[in-house]
């Protein structure tokens, strides 16, 4: 848990003027990653002046396995805290939010969440709504979302993303996280691995679309990747070794730091994250359970890396620009496909892409020429990346999914996602956009299908 070379402690709230010209900040009050961290809540409540009275919110499973004992320990230590246990299988919706709000005492100063993504999201939302301090104690390390200010809440049946107050304190206790089923922490490794392909996409975005780039953000993301994919980490996930859990947690925190500094997600979210959104849509339509975010983006990273492998296999010195330009979508054809793939959601996508998705041959030619101009820089960055096989190896070792089939995504859905997953966002650039620009998507899709032995 090192200090940054610049002198400030990245585990405390901080902000600084960066060489990139922007002012960066990480607004989380304090982050503690250690064995026994949760037991120190009484100390931190006092040190950070979180207030006189708190409430612990957790779910039944977590309360029975770890919550009851920690709660009793805090009370023994003289902490004034109540407890509310959410019943049954919880959904992050109005009902659950309402329960948390109604069961929070009027005189509470802070809310503590103890649990996975759902409990954490709901409590963060309720704390912001009630204007209370928020403390998160994650029970598994499935993603980097624990260290952000984002919550997804289902309102009127629709998933809505909220940007809320950052937590005042996060106690990531390796004693607790190590006890989680290892598939959950394996999902966290999937999230770390997704940063590898996301980084390549982000770099391409900088070169081809002038997307804002910062070397310090890149370096922080690099620390996340090297720590989260080190042998010591990968090998310790299945046996639940504390050091491995702490490395993974620290890696995911660093990813969140990088994204907080950048103040947006392109540095940590590329094509693999867009593929994940598309696959979730497929899972919902089929009525199969959604996979964990980290599982989806881990598989997404394998696919994204495979796309990059095809792009970088091109002989750019002899690339036929005209032939590629001729492969540009006809707008009417493309709209027809979008309607077929997205159904009711198509209109908002057509609106979003009205300006963003170019159907202009001159603009396309320009984009291809830019790619060719930068192909050596792209190749250098690509050479530093692990291969898709190496990623598969790591995902297998931690017991995480690596193949779309393991997410119940079939060949047809995978191919559709390669063509259309990117359409739900504008202002982004990644391997999906680049493969389309180069007119190679058909080829990329068939090669990936072959590699995956569908
Ligand atoms: Zn910067
Ligand atoms: Zn993610």
UniProtKB/TrEMBL annotation:
Keywords: Cytoplasm, Lipid biosynthesis, Lipid metabolism, Metal-binding, NAD, NADP, Oxidoreductase, Phospholipid biosynthesis, Phospholipid metabolism. This is Glycerol-1-phosphate dehydrogenase [NAD(P)+]. Signal peptide: none annotated. GO terms for molecular function: metal ion binding; oxidoreductase activity, acting on CH-OH group of donors. It comes from Eubacterium callanderi. One of its GO terms (biological process) is phospholipid biosynthetic process. Pfam families: Fe-ADH_2. PANTHER family: GLYCEROL DEHYDROGENASE, GLYCEROL DEHYDROGENASE 1. It comes from the Bacteria.
């Amino acid at each position: 848990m090192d200090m940054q070379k610049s002198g400030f402690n990245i585990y405390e709230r901080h902000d600084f003027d960066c060489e990139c010209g922007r002012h960066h900040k990480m607004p989380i009050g304090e982050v503690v990653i250690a064995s026994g961290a949760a037991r120190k809540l009484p100390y931190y409540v006092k040190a950070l002046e979180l207030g006189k009275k708190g409430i612990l919110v957790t779910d039944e499973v977590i309360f029975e396995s770890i919550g009851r004992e920690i709660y009793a320990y805090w009370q023994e230590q003289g902490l004034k805290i109540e407890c509310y246990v959410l019943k049954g299988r919880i959904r992050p919706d109005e009902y659950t939010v309402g329960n948390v709000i109604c069961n929070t005492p009027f005189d509470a100063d802070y809310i503590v969440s103890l649990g996975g993504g759902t409990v954490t999201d709901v409590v963060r939302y309720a704390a912001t709504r009630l204007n209370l301090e928020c403390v998160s104690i994650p029970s598994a390390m499935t993603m980097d979302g624990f260290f952000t200010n984002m919550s997804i809440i289902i309102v009127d049946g629709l998933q809505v993303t909220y940007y809320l107050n950052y937590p005042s304190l996060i106690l990531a206790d390796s004693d607790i996280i190590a006890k989680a089923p290892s598939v959950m922490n394996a999902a966290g490794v999937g999230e770390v691995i997704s940063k590898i392909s996301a980084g390549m996409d982000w770099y391409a975005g900088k070169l081809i679309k002038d997307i804002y780039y910062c070397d310090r953000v890149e370096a922080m993301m690099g620390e996340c990747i090297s720590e989260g994919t080190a042998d010591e980490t990968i090998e310790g996930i299945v046996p639940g070794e504390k050091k491995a859990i702490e490395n993974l947690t620290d890696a995911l925190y660093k990813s969140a730091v990088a994204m907080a500094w950048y103040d947006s997600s392109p540095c940590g979210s590329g094509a693999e994250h867009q593929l994940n959104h598309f696959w979730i849509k497929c899972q919902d339509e089929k009525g199969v359970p959604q996979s964990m975010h980290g599982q989806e983006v881990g598989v997404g990273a394998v696919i994204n890396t495979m796309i990059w492998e095809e792009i970088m296999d091109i002989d750019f010195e002899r690339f036929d620009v005209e032939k590629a330009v001729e492969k540009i979508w006809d707008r009417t054809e493309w709209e027809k496909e979008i309607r077929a793939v997205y159904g009711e959601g198509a209109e908002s996508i057509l609106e979003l892409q009205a300006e963003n998705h170019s159907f202009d041959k001159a603009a396309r030619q320009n984009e291809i020429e830019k790619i060719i101009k930068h192909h050596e820089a792209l190749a250098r960055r690509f050479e530093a990346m692990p291969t898709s096989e190496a990623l598969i190896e790591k995902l297998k070792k931690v017991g995480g999914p690596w193949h779309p089939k393991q997410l119940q995504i079939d060949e047809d859905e995978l191919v559709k996602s390669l063509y259309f997953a990117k359409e739900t966002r504008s202002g982004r650039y990644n391997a999906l956009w680049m493969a389309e620009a180069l007119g190679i998507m058909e080829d990329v899709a068939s090669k990936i299908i072959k590699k995956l032995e569908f």
